[in-house]
Amino acid sequence: MTPRGDRLIGFYGDDYTGSSAVMEVLGFAGVPTVLFLEPPDEAALARFADCRAVGIAGIARSQTPAWMDANLPGIFDTLARIGAPVTHYKVCSTFDSAPQIGSIGRAIELGVPRLGGAWHPLLVAAPALGRYQAFGNLFAVAGGAVHRLDRHPTMSRHPVTPMDEADLRRHLARQIAAPMGLVDLVALQGGRADAALAACLDAGERIVSLDAIDEATIAEAGRLIWEHRGERLFAIGSQGVEYALVAHWRRIGLLAPEAEPASAPPVKRIAVVSASCAPVTAAQIAQARRDGFTTFAVDAAAAADPALWARELDRAERDGLAALREGRSVVLHTAEGPDDPAIIRTRAAIAAAGEPAETIHARIGAGLGRLLGRLAAQSGLTRGVIAGGDTSGHAAQALGIGALTALAPLAPGAPLCRLHGSARAGGLAEIVLKGGQMGGPDFFQTVLRGGHAATGEIRRQDA
């Protein structure tokens, strides 16, 4: 694999929705970007030779350290061979992780020897998404208010990785034994960021957390990363890394000023499959129902038994197909919000099944992906949505998607994407991989229209 001197950044996303969000930031800023769903070989890269950013979508956020040990080294070696000056390990903007699931610390331990760098910026804040970091503590918007992460109404009670610590260095210290520094707001706003970074490095702190609360501080963080990248740099963070770099690249003329966003034509029908438990997605399902979508509950508890799950998917397919053939869009969901009794039933079924929970969660995601492909194949659908960060990876793999490119912005973190090499997608040409926390209430209607929300406003995202 031959490195290309004009590449700017390579990235691995620890879930599929986050990976597409990185592609969105770069692609709509004027950086041609491709997102592969498997590590690319030379032939695959040659088909996207014009792309200055190359990403690989993954599922590490929902996996164990043992899975990471088996899978991440090869992926990181591929990114190293791509040869971009900055390689980014993309994590959720709410830092979802734990020592036993989605360990960011273990990913850093595996990435540093392969991707190098004198230091490793940790930038999770993304003000454009309503994610702010001040003095090392992460805050996120929910319900129109800004909450410290450990008091956030969704993240503090996340079903897999509840966040009980807002100081990201303290949270990460549970996953990796390494000194960590901080370049705080005072340094960023006072022209002392370089000195603060130097002090961290002098103290042996190679992982350095970066505050950011607004456009000025995110751009200054981008400058710090780019000017101190050395020959190569391994960065960790949300798509805030790309927001920061894009802001700096524009300031130095590496990118043109912001262009008018692209749009896609409307379609008559879409299908949505969702395993998200987030209140944001629940509000979107309710709004879709009011907008004339037909919604169906899918019993995820059945996934504890493969035969029962197959029958449940067959039933969901019949119901969804009947509505689509009548000209209606559909949403097929396993839950409506964190308080849906279906979640308790599913947890009980998983506990009684005698299989690892991650195996059943993967079965749910893959089943929803196959369901979307079958609906598309039989109804002529060309546009679909997969909702749920952990779900999207397994569902997209089940569809056999080879690569994605960004087509049109819909809401921050959830672009409309074009499929490339989709072996089992049933004719789908366009897809949205939507994290549970992304999009406004009318998001599914926005997907149907192919453009921004009806107000034309891109809103900060509730988590």
UniProtKB/TrEMBL annotation:
One of its GO terms (molecular function) is kinase activity. Coiled coil: none annotated. Residues 271-444 form the Four-carbon acid sugar kinase nucleotide binding domain. Residues 9-245 form the Four-carbon acid sugar kinase N-terminal domain. The keyword Nucleotide-binding applies. It holds the Pfam family SBD_N. Keywords: ATP-binding, Carbohydrate metabolism, Kinase, Nucleotide-binding, Transferase. InterPro entries: 4-carb_acid_sugar_kinase_N, 4-carb_acid_sugar_kinase_N_sf, NBD_C, NBD_C_sf. Belongs to the four-carbon acid sugar kinase family. This is Type III effector Hrp-dependent outer protein. It comes from Acidiphilium cryptum (strain JF-5). The lineage of its organism: Bacteria, Pseudomonadati, Pseudomonadota, Alphaproteobacteria, Acetobacterales.
